[in-house]
Amino acid sequence: MSESEVERYRRNLQDERDGASLYAALAAAESDPVRKDLFTQLSQAEAEHAQVWHAKLAALGIRDPAYAPSLRTRLLMRLARRFGPRFVLPSIAAAEFADRDKYAGQADAAALSSEERGHAAVVQAAAAGTGGKGVAGSEIARAERWHRGGSGNDLRAAVLGANDGLVSNFCLVMGVAGAGTGGREILLTGLAGLAAGACSMALGEWLSVTNARELAETQIAREREEIEQTPEAEQKELALIFQAKGIDRADAQRIAAELMRDKDVALDTLAREELGIDPAERGGSPWRAAITSFALFAAGAICPVLPFLWSGGTTAIGISIALSAVALAGIGFVTSLFSGRTPLYSALRQVLIGCAAAAVTYGAGMLFGVSVS
User: Which helix (H) or strand (E) covers residue 65, if one does?
Assistant: First the structure.
């Protein structure tokens, strides 16, 4: 056995003991009986994981190292005792999510890997949960099969896509105009910038969504395999997830047992709650995303170019600036819908930033145009 393997066993043992201590502290500080029981179960699960690594070290004749909680664990435990579990749960959930695949590359920890991902989902649900006030277990069970996990960011993505096209092409057109180039050349440059930027955005979006779909399919296939091979462990994960949402232990276990009778429903629920994936969408359509991205970027990029279709010289430049400023104000107005700022503030900020960027490129165009000529 190499020294690096022994060190890995010790590191894993320390991590699991830290987790057991931390969840025990959360259980001790929690007043709600449902959540107290949830944290107790998580602490016991982490303690069982710790025993795995303790046994491996013992088999090598290595004495059990004295346990002392890490500095981070001691700090979180102290904060939980002082301010309550809800104060530290977001930090714990983020850490659990980051470490959910920490055993994925360890062949001797395959049995623990699925449970760690389940713990991450449970803690995230607990961090985002309402404490179960006014929510019946049967309602959650019914909702799990049918709800769709849209991000709610479609409007935001559309606005930002159009903004990218508008600002980048506005700056490009002003840069070329600053160099003293003729109207025909500015038009060709603007159209080329529109085509190049839109194609780049579309390709990037296609690749992004395609990769996301492939990853989602791989994760769902692995979850389906785990349901087939370890149904008891997956049912326990479901029960913990429901309990994290505020359902008492008995109801959570009953709901999980009902869902596990239909493996497709169980897979759908685990994919949503544990993996954060909508099995019906699996990241969406790459072609739809690419076409949408192309169209949005082009819609913004055409604004500063349009005046050069029928005019030229300073008149076209002035109209281009005015049209782009109006478009920037419109984008700023829409961003106020999800930024919380007032429409006037958002519109003025967008116009000022966009026009300032265009002024910089116009000045650069003048400088380079003079030096080249």
Answer: none
Question: How far, in Å, CA of 293 to CA of 277, rounded?
Answer: 22
Cα–Cα distance measured from residue 61 to residue 85, given in angstroms and rounded to the nearest whole number? 38
Residue 248 has what pLDDT? 78
Q: How far is CA 328 from CA 4, 128, 170, 190, 268, in A?
A: 57, 36, 10, 17, 42
Q: 195, 114, 209, 210: which is closest to 157 by C-alpha?
A: 209
Query: CA dihedral in degrees (91, 95, 97, 100; nearest 10)?
Result: -160
Cα 174–Cα 180–Cα 181 angle in degrees, nearest 5: 80
Rg for the chain (alpha carbons), in Å? 28
Helix ranges restricted to H, 230-312: 231-244, 249-260, 263-273, 286-301
Is the pTM value of this prediction over 0.70?
Answer: no
**What tokens appear for 219 in the block?**
């994760």
Residue in the structure block whose two tokens are 């055409």: 302
Q: How far is Cα 251 from Cα 242, in angstroms, rounded to an integer?
A: 9
Q: 365: burial class by Cβ within 10 Å (0-12, 13-18, 19+)?
A: buried
Break the chain down into helix, strand, coil percent, rounded to 5: 80, 0, 20
pLDDT in tens, 56-110: 888 888 877 788 988 888 888 988 888 888 888 887 887 887 777 788 778 777 7
Q: From CA 11, how far away is CA 163, in angstroms rounded? A: 47
Please give the sequence-ordered ranges of beta strands (E in DSSP) within 11-102, or none if there are none.
Answer: none
Length of the chain: 373
* pLDDT value at residue 129: 61
Least trusted range by pLDDT, from 101-115, 127-141, 145-159, 243-257? 127-141
Closest CA to 161 of 321, 298, 302, 288: 298
* Token couple for 277: 């994936």
**Looking at beta carbons, which pairs linking 211-215 to residues 24 or more positions away fall under 8 Å?**
212/282, 212/283, 212/284, 213/282, 213/283, 213/284, 213/286, 215/283
